[in-house]
Design a protein that fits this description.
The chain contains 6 helices and 7 strands. It is globular, with a radius of gyration of 17 Å. It is of the alpha/beta class and about 230 residues long. The longest helix has 14 residues. The protein has a 7-stranded mixed beta sheet with strand order 1-7-6-2-5-3-4. Helix 3 links the parallel strand 3 and strand 4.
């Protein structure tokens, strides 16, 4: 698979002066190991479809987004480190900025288009890594899937990286029944590749209807009804 080197032109950005990692740092390895052990106390995790996830090469994992906790079952379900966008506010404190960068996160502005974040996502894929994204762009808070943005599809079309849809259920119940563990189900679906001439919007629809098919009806939101004649 050949990745393009195209990036969105951008002016000088202060984030360019910081060091971002494209490998699992010692802090990341330690944190994931500790989190994996601690999560056994509060999460009964079930993973299905892991065979659809490639063990090497660039890949985008795209999941529904109900709560801030979603990133934990997402990472703990995969054998490879995930690199992901985090809201810029998380990086304002110098200490949390350093920690999140070591954990593979990079900041994105949610108030406007952010060419720097898009270009950094391209770099993650160019390094043959796993890019984790939530196409909705924000949490649904139990209201069902919202209208997705096209960033995931554009990255896949530009780089040729496959998209592995992921459906997460149960993460919104964390700690509500403590000390009972919360059942969290993570289901991965067959990877999607852009069809010749396919638009970002069309690929986004394919992705979101794929995720919706693995969610209970009450979580499918705006993607609950498959349009007549939709190719899927």
């Amino acid at each position: 698979m050949e990745l393009t080197n195209n990036t969105i032109p951008q002016e000088s950005d202060p984030r360019d002066r910081k060091h971002f990692f494209f490998h699992a740092t010692p802090l990341r390895k330690f944190s994931v190991a500790v989190l994996g052990s601690v999560s056994l106390l509060f999460m009964d995790k079930r993973v299905d479809g892991l065979e659809y996830f490639p063990l090497d090469g660039p890949v985008i994992v795209a999941a529904n987004h109900v709560t801030n906790f979603d990133v934990f079952p997402m990472q703990l379900s995969l054998p490879r480190p995930i690199f992901y966008m985090g809201k810029a506010e998380l990086f304002r404190n110098p200490l949390t900025d350093l920690v999140f960068r070591n954990l593979g996160a990079f900041p994105v502005s949610r108030d406007k288009k952010d060419p720097w974040a898009y270009n950094h996502a391209l770099k993650v894929l160019a390094h043959g890594q796993t890019l984790g994204m939530f196409p909705e762009g924000t949490r649904s808070r139990g209201r069902g899937l919202g209208v997705a943005k096209t960033g995931v599809a554009r990255l896949s079309i530009e780089t040729g990286a496959p998209i592995v849809p992921m459906a997460i259920t149960g993460s919104d119940h964390f700690f509500k029944r403590f000390p009972r563990r919360t059942r969290v189900t993570v289901k991965m679906l067959p990877p999607l590749l852009p069809n010749p001439g396919e638009t970002a919007l069309a690929l986004t629809d394919r992705l979101m209807f794929s995720i919706a098919s693995a969610l209970p009806p009450e979580m499918r939101g705006v993607y609950s009804v498959l349009p007549k004649g939709f190719g899927g």
